[in-house]
Hints:
Strand content: 25-35%
CATH superfamily of the largest domain: Jelly Rolls
CATH architecture of the largest domain: Sandwich
Number of domains: 2
Number of strands: 8
Order of helices and strands: EEEEEEEEHHH
Largest sheet: 6 strands, antiparallel
CATH topology of the largest domain: Jelly Rolls
Radius of gyration: 20 Å
CATH class of the largest domain: Mainly Beta
Amino acid sequence: MLITCSFALASDNSPLQDFCVADPNGPVLVNGFPCKDAKLVQANDFFLSGLHLMGNTSNAVGSRVTPVTVAQLPGLNTLGISMARIDFAPWGINPPHTHPRATEILTVIEGSIQVGRSRSLSEEYWICNAIAIVGLSSQNPGVITIANAVFGAKPDIPSDLLAKAFQVDVKVVDQIQSKF
Length: 180
């Protein structure tokens, strides 16, 4: 009998320095991203425009997340923080999700939000008409949307297994999987 096992870890390393602007072409890695030569750092490495603009919420879930991670703002490199703006259309939602490398705090800037939480999945979802700002405890928090992970998995999770797990007919699972 052959048994295989895989193991993965994902986390931010401890900051080794507090000034390390991300350089995607640099040879030396610090905290997962290479540091730009300090002589080449510019003000734009610490600036992101457009966060004040509403995101396009005309999509299936009625929300738009505008991330501000090290990928969008190189000056966040090694600081262990990021944020996002979330715009919600009336009755828009932020689908159930989790951040594998971060905890999150949310502040409502405008409107109202109804929040639900599943302890078993450690995720949140929102139904509202609002604008919110989210703070995250990682420069690269990642996101796993539960529906995508379950119904859009590659390779597919067998329909009969999902039907049994969710206690629904296989046709229901097939219909949901077809959307992903």
